[in-house]
Design brief:
Blueprint: E1 3-9, E2 19-23, E3 27-32, E4 36-40, E5 43-47, E6 52-55, E7 60-65, E8 72-79, H1 82-88, E9 96-97, H2 103-118, H3 123-166, H4 174-181, H5 185-196, H6 200-218, H7 223-229, H8 235-246, H9 250-261, H10 273-279, E10 282-289, E11 292-296, H11 300-306, H12 310-315, H13 327-338, E12 343-351, E13 357-367, E14 370-377
Antiparallel strand pairs: 1-8, 2-7, 3-6, 3-8, 4-5, 4-7, 6-9, 10-11, 10-14, 12-13, 13-14
Helix pairs in contact: 2-3, 3-5, 4-5, 6-9
Amino acid sequence: MKVRIKNVLSNAGELNSKLIQHISSGYEFYLFQSDAIINLSSGISEVKYGDCILFGENDPVDIKASGEPLECCLISFKCADCKKLLSEIDFEVSKIYRPVQTYFVDSIIDKITKEYNAKDLHFDKVFSIHIQELLLKISRFVRQDFVLSLPDHAQKLRELRTEVHENFPKRWTIENMSQIMGLSASRFASLYKQIFNISPTEDLIRTRIDQSKKMLSTTKVSIKKVSAACGFESVHYFHRAFKKRIGITPKHFQNKMLTNQGSVPVNQNDQSLDSMSLTSDFSGTLEIINGEIVFHGNDSNWSKFLGYSTDHLNDKPFMNLISDDDLDKAKGAVNSIVNGKNVFNVNLSLVAKNGDILPINFSAISKGNSIFWFIKSELVIIS
């Protein structure tokens, strides 16, 4: 393969632009060292550190930095028979490649950069060899990355799995779990299944189902409250997921277990999750963000009670809902929660979206790495 080099930039930030837009006059290889957005014919895609892409001749190049200045390595070159090599190794142009092992890419680019700067005898031939090596190894390592990644990521995946199991009510998705691992969503899901012999989604659902069985087996708490406390998006989804895996509905399971055991009344002095769920009108989990608490797991009745959408409430700090008269009392409760203390039966007034004052009784209990909130209303809630 005969290659004629056009340009090598060890950092495309030298272009002094957050946006690269042009039609490629040759082949352009990019290795990204910062987040960016690429507009491809297949759609808009995000790229992360270590991702790479090869644009072919006359391909539109449309790359935009994500927040920070664009950092990437750029190698542009002309090649008469590059199409033949790409076809032989099944390497596609205008496709994002995400090899887990990136040390070889850095190493080859370093050699290419040195050759380009030195321009010694037979420079073009050496450069051609390095370009072939680069494309061949990316093709090879992309296909082997699942095997190569197992020892590197196994421990981190186990730690993430433990965190997910301990914080099962949290809103976990393939996207946010893969971001924690620093992997693409598809790569993360494949590695997870190889190591644990179960998909991350199914693993999370089974964990939530197991927790729901514990609650259903010991209390008469409503199915709706069990669903919310275990992190399910809706009662309908919980019902479907439970029946698919257990064979009967949650209500049938609860009635069967309580009948076999005898229904045991809950001790109102026992401040457990189950007892709090029984006596509260609304419940879910909360998260501490920059010293403030934000609710998660809000159901439709809680949204209806305040007049806000569920998405709005999931992002709205607790203090923003408190009436002016109760701000000091609410701050004391928040400080206790931030400092790892449980709070019980704090009488507060919330301000609904329409301005109505809503008196409530607020409690929060920490268990493991999760914090659960419970609210009792003094108003009559119409479902």
